[in-house]
């Protein structure tokens, strides 16, 4: 039987968003070898200036990218070729704010939610039947600031994340040290403030990315400035987050400068991973299956500088780290029992990679 020829052996594609100030040409597409974890080049798509964050719809037919062009935020849509993984440009819509750095598609495939870092706002864009984006159905401007003299002078939305049921969205308000909670009105494409609309975080933390546990009982935010991971109990019926615990992402003996970036929970819900830029590592926590409490497992050097983004592949067997400053993506095998990462020896060169997403196509 030839690899990737049946549903039992699907083709796994990696999509890599980049900053295009240097040698990058846009979004890079690679095919994964599930036996080795190696990534083999497939194609490149010119995707406007700085396609720095990507999201894929639940049908895996369309990809959406956040662009910043001369300060203006734009969201681009692309069709995914189911055989080659290649992208075809469809259209583009304004994000309503400046410097969109994060976006997500709801589980129905009807809406794209976007967080604008430049001015601290969120917006909702409807997805039409052909995958193109319509004009925005909602826009919310945040207010507030915090104590960092240059990074928190005003609102800065660094991510917006939907819970597994797409009922509630959590916006990481980096500039004001808060999590903003919204209920998604999936009929009208509106964001409605939750019962507890904001969750304060210790001043100077800089909440960046949020991840829900697959059981919908817990959630985790990684804080860029304080280098911490905060875990929460989550009431999925009401969209309420309750503080559980705060843990450092760095070793106790580390004295250098570092800033957190990305956070993910594996599909089994047994481990949480976060990236440290400066210490240049992935921090690994084990999740208690009953209480959701996390325990430090260790740190794995990422073999590059500024691990801004990483992804766990659809099989759950590999983790790929994208290094913004060393133009490389490094593959690690995941020990499913311990959560530990082991270098596979495989890496690829990609100019200024800042986001990586993966899908499995039959």
Can you characterise this structure?
The protein is mainly beta. The protein has one domain (11-361): YVTN repeat-like/Quinoprotein amine dehydrogenase (Methylamine Dehydrogenase, Chain H, 7 Propeller). Helix content is 0%, strand content 55%. The protein has no helices and 28 strands. It has strands spanning 11-18, 27-32, 39-45, 53-56, 62-69, 72-80, 87-94, 100-105, 111-116, 121-126, 138-141, 157-162, 168-173, 178-185, 190-200, 207-212, 218-223, 228-235, 240-248, 259-265, 271-277, 281-287, 294-301, 307-312, 318-323, 328-334, 341-349, 353-361. The strands form seven sheets. The protein has a four-stranded antiparallel beta sheet with strand order 3-2-1-28, with no helix packed on it. A four-stranded antiparallel beta sheet has the order 4-5-6-7, with no helix packed on it. Strand 5 and strand 6 form a beta hairpin. The chain is globular and about 45 Å long. It starts with 10 loop residues before the first strand and ends with a strand. Mean pLDDT is 95; it is low at 1-7. It holds the Pfam family Lactonase.
């Amino acid at each position: 039987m030839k690899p990737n020829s049946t549903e039992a052996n699907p083709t796994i594609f990696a999509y890599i968003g980049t900053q295009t100030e240097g040698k990058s040409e846009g979004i890079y597409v690679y095919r994964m070898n599930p036996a080795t974890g190696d990534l083999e080049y497939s194609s490149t798509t010119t995707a406007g200036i700085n396609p720095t964050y990507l999201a894929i719809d639940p049908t895996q037919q369309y990809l959406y990218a956040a662009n910043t062009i001369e300060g203006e935020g734009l969201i681009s849509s692309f069709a995914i070729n189911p055989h080659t993984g290649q992208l075809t440009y469809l259209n583009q819509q304004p994000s309503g704010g400046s410097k969109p750095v994060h976006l997500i598609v709801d589980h129905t495939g009807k809406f794209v939610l976007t967080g604008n870092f430049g001015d601290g706002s969120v917006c909702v864009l409807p997805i039409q039947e052909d995958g193109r984006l319509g004009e925005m159905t909602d826009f919310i401007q945040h207010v507030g600031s915090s104590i960092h003299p240059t990074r928190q002078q005003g609102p800065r939305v660094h991510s917006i994340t939907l819970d597994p049921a797409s009922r509630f969205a959590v916006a990481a308000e980096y500039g004001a040290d808060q999590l903003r909670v919204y209920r998604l009105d999936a009929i009208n494409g509106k964001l409605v403030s939750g019962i507890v609309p904001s969750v304060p975080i210790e001043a100077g933390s800089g909440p960046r990315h949020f991840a829900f546990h697959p059981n919908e009982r817990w959630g985790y935010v990684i804080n860029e400035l304080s280098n911490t991971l905060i875990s929460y109990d989550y009431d999925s019926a009401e969209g309420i987050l309750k503080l559980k615990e705060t843990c450092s992402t760095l070793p106790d003996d580390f004295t250098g400068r570092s800033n957190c970036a990305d956070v993910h929970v594996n599909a089994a819900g047994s481990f949480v991973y976060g990236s440290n830029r400066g210490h240049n590592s992935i921090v690994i926590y084990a999740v208690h299956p009953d209480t959701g409490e996390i325990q430090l497992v260790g740190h794995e050097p990422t073999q590059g500088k500024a691990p801004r983004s990483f992804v766990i592949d659809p099989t759950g067997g590999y983790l790929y780290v994208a290094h913004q400053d060393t133009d490389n993506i490094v593959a690690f095998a995941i020990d499913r029992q311990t959560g530990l990462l082991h270098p596979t020896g495989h890496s690829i060169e990609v100019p200024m990679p800042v986001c990586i997403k993966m899908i499995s196509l039959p």
